[in-house]
Specification:
Length: 282
């Protein structure tokens, strides 16, 4: 209130004494209200952006020359600095990277959270049906040996949602749709999202990045094209008690007709993708 009062007084000194004497109490109150609105508007605008410290940490993480070529060659498609900024991650956070695979995001998350944070990389056993998966997991396990703020867990879909501490962020990239598929069980989606809810701290974020399906796509589109409608994800996650926070179009591609399998060479790496952020109420 001292700042607002100073703002009003400064404005008044630039007007003639006669004008100031003519102000009514209601006019003065209106000026004060406008000043408040302006101040809170600036705060609200800044609240949606990462702090300068977080932005610097993200930039340094992505630019780190020690990152493997297998990661950096994917940056143009994945836009890691922007996507992680949207997630709300910050140094010191406790984070889960579910379906970490070879650890593209795990390595980035590990660098951002730093020594005071921790990343729990979860490798669901259902994915071991894919020939490349065991090699990718071994690669991430090797990374974890030299990075004590990373723990790699191999477990069944729901068993992998047990953590030794409450999380600030639960991150799942391009595999939420797989939870609906036969090779994963399929997973009890309601139980999965409720377990994520319980794993997070009050106010914690649940961020889902996935390939977008066409509006009105058949329910089995998760199996056939490895896509899912964002509206389906919202409905399932909100049913667990989460509040929708925001959606990002960072990875949107309007040119994707969303009718081809995501592995099709005509669209691979350039699919239309959504990022949804949910918050556990405080």
């Amino acid at each position: 209130m001292k700042i607002i009062s100073g703002f009003i007084n400064t404005r008044l000194t630039h007007r003639t004494k006669e004008r100031s004497l003519q102000r009514t109490p209601m006019q003065i109150l209106a000026v004060a209200f406008a000043a408040c609105a302006l101040a809170f508007g600036v705060i609200a605008s800044a609240a949606g952006r990462p702090s300068p410290d977080v932005s610097a940490a993200l930039a340094a993480t992505v630019a780190d020359p020690s990152r493997p070529d297998s990661d950096t060659t994917r940056d143009a498609d994945r836009k890691p600095q922007q996507t992680l900024a949207f997630s709300g991650i910050k140094p010191g956070d406790q984070v889960a990277d579910y379906g970490a695979d070879s650890g593209y995001f795990t390595r980035l998350l590990s660098s951002v959270v730093g020594p005071k944070g921790h990343v729990y990389a979860v490798e669901p056993t259902g994915f071991f049906k894919y020939q490349s998966f065991p090699k990718n997991v071994a690669e991430l396990q090797g990374y974890a040996v030299a990075h004590p703020n990373v723990t790699v867990t191999i477990a069944a879909a729901l068993e992998g949602l047990k953590f030794p501490e409450k999380l600030d962020l639960f991150w799942i990239s391009q595999i939420y749709h797989d939870l609906h598929d036969e090779f994963m069980g399929p997973v009890d989606i309601a139980a999965f999202n409720k377990a994520v809810y319980n794993a997070l701290k009050p106010g914690g974020f649940y961020v889902i990045l996935d390939h977008s399906a066409a509006l009105g796509a058949a329910a089995n589109v998760t199996e056939t094209l490895h896509r899912i409608e964002s509206s389906t994800v919202r409905r399932e996650v909100e049913a667990a008690g989460f509040k929708f926070d925001s959606e990002s179009s960072i990875l949107a591609n309007p040119a994707d007709p969303r009718t081809a399998k995501v592995f099709d060479q005509t669209i691979r790496g350039h699919t239309d993708q959504f990022i949804l952020k949910f918050r556990k109420p405080k």
